[in-house]
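Feature request disguised as a bug: please show the residue count (638) next to F-box domain-containing protein in the output. Example input:
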Amino acid sequence: MALLLPVKLIEEIVSHLEYASDINALARTHGTFYHVVSPMLYRHNVHHDNSSALSWGIEHGLATVQRSLAAGASANECDPDVLWRPMPLAVIEGHEDIVQYLYEQEGVNIRHTRPWLNPRHEDYENTPGSLLSLAAVHVHEALACFFMDHLPRPYHVDYPTSSDGRTPLMDAAEEGHLTIVQRLVDAGADIHAKDHRQMTPLVLSTRAGHLEVIQFLLQRGADPTITTDYLASTVEPADKTALLCVASARGNITLVQQLLESHGYDPNSRYTQDHSFMWNNLPTAIYWAVVRGHEEVVKVLLTHGTDACPSPGQMRLRKPLIEAIIQGSESMVSMLLSAGAYSNDPDETIGLEALKHAIPFEGIFRHLLTAGTGPTTAHCQDNETLIVTILASSRTTVVQMLIDQGINLAHHMHQANILHQAIRGGPVVLDLLVRAGKWNSYLLPEHLDQKVCKQALGIAASTGQVETLQWLLDRGFPVAPSSSPTVNLFAQAACTEASDTHAARTIDFLLKHGLDINQVIPYKTALAHVAVHYDMLMDRDAGRVRMRMLLDRGAHLLPPRSLPRPTGYKPYGSSSGTDVGRSFDLDEMIFKELEARREPWIAVEPIFRWAEYCARERLDWPGVKMVRQYSWRVRYPV
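Example output, currently without the count:
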């Protein structure tokens, strides 16, 4: 009966459908409905979805294009998400039938250069374009021939130029499309034409390395001796700055000297075009020369008055001195300091001072100290002093420089501890400080309280360096179990940022010295510490590896099995007897162990209840699902 409904009634039904998907579903219910409803679907698309079906059809086939246009879509505009108008989009896609249809049936004028960008797109620009160039660039030979037969001016194949003076032949030559280059030249394209940058088709094909195109153009008479006067074409200040920056970045000393000495370029000019992120980061020539490591260019620029310490501006850039330090170039650092760069310059991007960046480069560090940089006034990240960072760096030569300057390291630690930072630097730093003999009261256990000693061992374990732990033990730091431990050394070792190999070596070292891998310190076992730590870092894969490392060395997921089961058997007492409820992965390991043990439900029910409660508190809904799955598997074993 529904198939006998009048068209008006069907249209009324469709008018109450809000979404295209609903209309489409109705159209697909029956062939009769499809023929009636399909045009309505396209009209809905025109009025409610910005005629998006048109651009989709241009990419996929003529039939959709015809239906969309019949429903009222414009042949001169696409939806706002598409950069091009319908005709150039069809050219880019290479659909000859759609191009012919838009030209012959819809009257799209292809004989004039016009803005072919979609006026509804946010990047629309009112600049002329060439359909012939689009066909040439995208290697659609048949369409290129079609547009050559419909030129804006008869036989003038070079007429459809772009806003930068590029002809279709230039575009095809640069892209290396030999067959289209041949057709354009046969049609009369000028092989000696130049764009606004004075580039010829031969120059463009040569720069891109298209040998066959080069050979063809030379055979057809292209003049290889024509010079490109890019200097004459570079007149805008921004273009001049860009040219000087490019010459500096490429290390072209001759060109840099020519621009500065013969053409009066300003060595301190800044490129400030907002649209270019790269230029904003490196706005002047000396930045580019330093970052690319061209020392001779840096020397030329400084000789011609380049500011060695330019203002960072609104972008708060790294100054050239900082860039030279990061490059590790002592000679460039020396040149910049001699030219007036301030040795205490901070890194404007992250607030670190020059000396912090120089720590890995001993020669540069020494050079900065000689230039008067004050190591005791410099600060690093998180309000750390430079002294703190240097001690933890393992750079003994740099530490020795500070000692040679007579600096009392212990007085410049801020809230850090000289022993703890030296431990992070390793045995070489510790030995150096002990030999200096000035800070033994801060370094050796006979002068320290028990808390500092325990913290020292924990920090050593966290470095993943067994040698550092051995150094502490050799000097009397107590690694043996104590009655009131406060630092879980196994947890520190398993949570190290060092490699898995170093973590395993440290854990084995602690086991060798009699520590209990299952001791609860404080309130958690090492397994629980590791699970929580890697959950916080959102690195569950690493957490599983480190937990397995502990389990393979004797860590317990559950208390050991008790003796024969009397009535009311409850070996776990409560959830406090396990590490359950702390993380998804640890819970899953514990539940697998429970399943393997085939414990009675009455003994383990509190564990599952607590685990589900904790998962809900963490808003861990996959965890809640996992707890329930294992609770059923444990309760009803197969």
